[in-house]
Amino acid sequence: MSVGRFFSTLCGLALGATLSAPALAQNGKTEVLWLGQAATRITTPAGKVIMIDPWLVTNPKTPAGFKNIHGVGKVDLILVTHGHFDHMADAPDLAKLHKAPMYGPAGLNQVVQSLGVLPVELSPRFGKGGTITPFGADGVKITAVGAEHSSEYVWKNPVTSRDEVHPGGEPVGFIIEMENGFKIWHMGDTAVFGDMRLIAQMYKPDLVLAPIGGHFVMNPVDAAMAMREMIRPRYVLPIHYGTTPQLRGTPAEFKQALGNAAGAPQMLSVNPGEKVDF
After folding, report:
1. pLDDT score of 27
2. Which of 53, 63, 166, 203 lies at a CB distance of 3.0 to 4.6 Å from 273, suitable for a disulfide?
């Protein structure tokens, strides 16, 4: 399966424009658009649009054309890996705008429901080991898997105007299997943990979106070791770096740590606002 890079400039489009979902469906491709930090828009071969960890409006790395909730175009489904602001800041507004369900860890979505942030129908709950088929039995399959991190949800109380910190359930990653069988593992935020090897054996992801910034998540050396020795995907796309001073890890460091031995994953060099298709 070959991989190709599609940039807005190459398509003769302004930054922020995107290929239409029907065109992608006709070509049978999976499109992955990275928008900075962990924010990722995936368009499936059948044209379904999945938005993961949407932090857009105040994300310093998100291109100007996407710095509003209308910029990502239509959204059919939202996935949130945990409750931190830089992963779900714009998820509730996107859910309400598109009437698209925001799936997240069960504990997080229970809090979202109880606080009145989203109604039950827009904040369905599921947890680690659970698999959903939101577009029907023959559509995309999404499984929640482990992540080694924390999850707190900060909510501004409209009565007191004070920020309140609520438990955000347990963080997860997502294995997303396309209609044609191509599998993506979006890790969210995580440190290295031993069951990465088990998850890889069970689900055999083709592409992993891996955090590399360090401090709160894996650093480039740890992430490279996990990809090279535990997971061994065909492709890896580094995410979650460069947005704050603490996230010092760089793709160059990650690439160097990955090495070029036979069987090493291919690192995809993608800047925020650029797409890769498979």
Report:
1. 58
2. 63
- The ranges of the chain with pLDDT < 70 are 1-27
Q: How far apart are CA 191 and CA 175, in angstroms?
A: 17
**Which distant-in-sequence residues (6+ apart) come within 8 Å of 40 by Cβ?**
32, 33, 34, 51, 52, 53, 186, 209, 239
State residue 10's pLDDT score: 31
Residue-wise DSSP of the chain: ---EEE-TTTTT--TT----HHHHHHHT--EEEE-STT-EEEE-TT--EEEES---TT-TTS-GGGSSTTTT---SEEE-SSS-HHHHTTHHHHHHHHT--EEEEHHHHHHHHHTTSS-GGGS-EE-TT-EE-TT-TTS-EEEEEE--S--EEEEE-TTT--EEEEE----EEEEEE-TTS-EEEE--S----THHHHHHHHH--SEEEEE---TTS--HHHHHHIIIIII--SEEEEES-SSSTT----HHHHHHHH---TTPPEEP---TT-EEE-
- pTM for the whole thing? 0.89
Asked if 143 and 130 touch (Cβ cutoff 8 Å), the reply is yes
Q: Is 259 exposed, middle or buried (0-12, 13-18, 19+ CB in 10 A)?
A: exposed
Quickly tell me which residue has 């830089």 as its tokens.
Answer: 86
Q: What is the pLDDT of residue 260?
A: 85
Length of the chain: 278
